[in-house]
Amino acid sequence: MELLYEENENLKKENERLKRVHDSMNGTLQAQAKLIDQLKSDLDKLNDEYKKQNVLVQRLSELLVSALKACPDLQLENERLKLENSQLRRHANLDYNMVLAEENVKLKLENKVLRVQNDALVGKLISDSDKKHS
After folding, report:
1. Which UniProt keywords apply (predicted)?
2. DSSP summary character for residue 71
3. How far, in Å, CA of 18 to CA of 25, rounded?
């Protein structure tokens, strides 16, 4: 009888623990359900916005295609300008590199001149210092 009483107490404790776990899980499930509902709502809003933007892009694309068809010269002009632009960029880049190279040579020469002047001034200072101490 005592063993049954002890087993009964253990089962009651286990039952209470399982009820608490169940209540906790229910709370978590409800919170997750609310979050899922919010996410579904957000997704619906984003889908609506996507559809509106898609309609706008399609309409603008149609207008662009019709404008290009109306002006085939515009397409050729656009290609010509792209080619000219790339050629100018390459040419400008070469000119810029040449300018940089020339400036680099000038700066190296100036650096050498300044080193010579600096060495001369240091030598003069040492010489003047030796004369004062002599």
Report:
1. Coiled coil
2. -
3. 10
The model's pTM is 0.40
Q: What are the residues whose beta carbons fall under 8 Å from the beta carbon of 68, sequence distance 6 or more?
A: 74, 75
Range of the domain at 11: 1-70
Query: What is the Cα–Cα distance from 10 to 133, expressed in whole angstroms?
Result: 105
Q: How many residues does the chain have?
A: 134
The reply to whether 46 and 104 lie within a common domain is no
Check if the beta carbon of residue 49 is closer than 8 Å to that of residue 41. Answer: no
> Over the Cα atoms of the chain, what is R_g?
43
Q: Tell me the two tokens of residue 4.
A: 């049954």
Residues 50 and 102 in one domain: no
